[in-house]
Amino acid sequence: MRTSEGKITKKDLRGLFLRSLPMEASFSYESMMSMAYAYCMKPIITKLYDDPEKQKDAMQRHIEFFNCTSACTPFILGASAAMEEQNAMDPQYDTGAINQVKSDLMGPLASLGDTIFWGVLRMAAAGIGISLALQGSYLGPVLFVLLFNVPNFLFRYFGAVLGYEKGPSLIRELSQSGVVERLTWALNILGLVIIGGMTAFMVRVQTPLTIAGVSVQAGLDHVLPGLAALLFTLLLYWLMKKNVSSNWLIAGCLLLGVAAGMCGILA
């Protein structure tokens, strides 16, 4: 979408990237992230339009409803910047297309972004960080922050550049080819595998009980190693699906563990 005579520079795109970092700091249930989106676009609009009325019209376009994974938003911002640039140079440009493109990109990018950042990347970073923290290493929280945020920052910066240069045509091509759906499906599977590995490695539920001289724990491990931990994790998942507060679940696990340990039920 970029034109050779465009006014927008790499410095402007870096500005989009930087302004997108606190994207969720301005949030409402009426229009979600629209105010933050307009905040990101403000320097671009001021640069492209000299007429204050045109600036107002452009800002009005970008305070309409908007909601997407914040890490993916710079791609849409880049596309909006390119379209605003075309509108500034072409009096006949259809401004309705600007918001239409935003609406078209929100869904696919939200699905992909939530899967990548909140599903896979967060779980993987947490798994590595927690495993190190359990061993007493101070690198645990440091690595968690780095492993989650470095890809996040890179995705934002290059997303702004790619969105400006390629615009919605790239997402449209990927969606039509089915790449987005297949990638989302594969990443969901990967996220489940990571959660399964974390459950087996980090959840410890063992009992010293014996029945007729036979160890209950040995019997469970004979059926499936880590079966008790798996069943306990599934129970917590079921309770969360029933909208039980995570704070109550944490408190319940703590009290249950102490009580069962004192009674000799859990090791």
Automatic annotation (TrEMBL):
<feature type="transmembrane region" description="Helical">
    <location>
        <begin position="116"/>
        <end position="136"/>
    </location>
</feature>
<keyword id="KW-1133">Transmembrane helix</keyword>
<feature type="transmembrane region" description="Helical">
    <location>
        <begin position="142"/>
        <end position="164"/>
    </location>
</feature>
<dbReference type="InterPro" id="IPR004704">
    <property type="entry name" value="PTS_IID_man"/>
</dbReference>
<feature type="transmembrane region" description="Helical">
    <location>
        <begin position="247"/>
        <end position="266"/>
    </location>
</feature>
<dbReference type="GO" id="GO:0009401">
    <property type="term" value="P:phosphoenolpyruvate-dependent sugar phosphotransferase system"/>
</dbReference>
<dbReference type="Pfam" id="PF03613">
    <property type="entry name" value="EIID-AGA"/>
</dbReference>
<dbReference type="GO" id="GO:0005886">
    <property type="term" value="C:plasma membrane"/>
</dbReference>
<keyword id="KW-0472">Membrane</keyword>
<feature type="transmembrane region" description="Helical">
    <location>
        <begin position="185"/>
        <end position="203"/>
    </location>
</feature>
<dbReference type="InterPro" id="IPR050303">
    <property type="entry name" value="GatZ_KbaZ_carbometab"/>
</dbReference>
<feature type="transmembrane region" description="Helical">
    <location>
        <begin position="223"/>
        <end position="240"/>
    </location>
</feature>
<protein>
    <submittedName>
        <fullName>PTS system mannose/fructose/sorbose family transporter subunit IID</fullName>
    </submittedName>
</protein>
<keyword id="KW-0812">Transmembrane</keyword>
